[in-house]
Amino acid sequence: MITVTPGMRRLCASVLGMEAIVVGLTTPVAINVQGVPAGTAVTVGIGLAVLCVVVAGMLKRPSAYVAGSLVQVLAIVSGVMVPMMFFLGAIFLVLWITAIFVAHRVEGVTSR
C-alpha cells in the first residue's frame, strides 16, 4: 500500500497540473494539424485534461495514485491522435514515477 505524504501529493499534483495543460493543448493540434474530427479531439484532449485535474484533487487517497498511473498510460495512448504525445506522455510517465520515488526518499530522510 502506498503511504501518501504531503510532499508526494505536492509533486504529483504538479505533474498532473502540467500534464492537464499539455493534453488540453493537444485538442487544437489534433483538429487543425492531424485532421481528427472535432468531437473526438475534444472528448479525448479536454476529457484527459479534466481527468488530470480530478485525479490531482484526489491525491490524499492512495487509490488516486493508481488512477494517476492510468492517466499516464492514457496520455501515451493519446499519441494515436497526436503522435508527439507518445513522446510527451512518456516524459510525463517518467515525471510521475520520479515524483513518487523522490517524495518517498525525501520524506524518509527528513523524518529521521
Automatic annotation (TrEMBL):
Keywords: Membrane, Transmembrane, Transmembrane helix. The chain crosses the membrane at residues 12-31, 37-59, 71-103. Pfam families: DUF4233. The keyword Membrane applies. This is DUF4233 domain-containing protein. It comes from Planomonospora corallina.
